[in-house]
């Protein structure tokens, strides 16, 4: 591996983490010595990388630092293309447009040897074969803005209820899409299938608590660990 490639891999390893990581851990991951990590970190800092920390404590890449364009392995490129093509089949025009734009950007920055990889990729995705979820865009916006939502929801027994919720996250599964939210009626976290939401009306009030805190509580309660 060239030194330039190793430096980019080190930046990527730091980018994946939210908390300081020791040189020993980075060395094991990249297959080099801890001394090499110390030297490479110093080089990156000298070149302007926003890395904080010190030997014996650990290093972290300051949030908001933009990495230079990274090379993609064949597997990484397949994963990106497949993921974005799956997104394009969701019932959300904004997400569909964003996925198409992202694919175009990826195609534009690929080296000449991979210039046509996106359009000729064998990673294909089709409609998931489920009911439409027209409320997806409204829910996404409420999550982003941390705003309450008023739902008209039909449960699996066919009973319609009115709920005021604090949307936390959307889970996309093979046969359904699930909304995790704090339900004021139940005073607890609840899960709602998007295809059973008859309507979702944005409220005028923000959550009384930050969504990142709610998300952490929901993960802890459900035993869900998400790397990033």
Automatic annotation (TrEMBL):
Source organism, top-level taxon: Bacteria
One Pfam family, short name: WYL
Residue ranges of every copy of the WYL domain listed in the record: 136-200
Residue ranges of domain Helix-turn-helix type in the record: 6-59
Gene3D superfamilies tied to this protein: Winged helix-like DNA-binding domain superfamily/Winged helix DNA-binding domain
Protein name: YafY family transcriptional regulator
